[in-house]
Amino acid sequence: MKRYPRDMYGYGKNTPKAQWPNNAKIALQIVINFEEGGENNILHGDNASEAFLSEIVGASAWPNQRHANMESIYEYGSRVGFWRLYDIFKKLPVTVYGVATALARSPNHVHAMKSANWEIASHGLKWIDYKDFEEKDEKADMNEAIRLHTEVTGSAPKGWYTGDLP
Q1: pTM listed for this prediction
Q2: What is the CATH number of the domain that holds 108?
Q3: Overall domain count for the chain
Q4: 81 exposed, middle or buried (CB, 10 Å; 0-12, 13-18, 19+)?
Q5: Does residue 64 have a pLDDT over 80?
Q6: Cβ partners under 8 Å of residue 138, min gap 6
Q7: If phi over 0 gives left and psi between -120 and 50 gives alpha, with beta otherwise, what is residue 22?
Q8: Torsion of CA 29, 10, 7, 31, to 10 degrees
Q9: Using alpha carbons only, how large is the chain's radius of gyration in Å?
Q10: What is the mean predicted confidence (pLDDT) over 137-164?
Q11: Which percentage of the chain shows pLDDT scores above 70?
Q12: Distance CA 104, CA 114 (A)
């Protein structure tokens, strides 16, 4: 039988004992994805509306058209969801996975992130699927994401997440 390529076993019965500061029993990492304004939209020069990630079952891209339902899902996140999370977590260390074009369109959000001293890691240039991109094109987008991220946050990203598998 061919070996399964994912590790489904982990440490097994030999899980290492974690030694957290102050003998804490749990460690919690809080990550907020900030993608609103980085999705596909003809307002951004894209050929079609977003279809990659939404609560709309069976969503498909609308060529050369805006998609009000899709836009409202993303806008809700920036208008309401972000500020709720900010109020809850502003005194805690948080990592934000920020799409560079979304950050650039939301200076008030970036200011809030920085005032809370949150780490702003890169979540790529746009909220798009890079699975079938040519390496040179993905590299160009990565370089532009780093440039834009640095411009709008004041420093280069120290972390990166786009979620592609090789």
Answers
A1: 0.84
A2: 3.20.20.370
A3: 1
A4: middle
A5: yes
A6: 130
A7: left
A8: 0
A9: 19
A10: 93
A11: 98
A12: 14
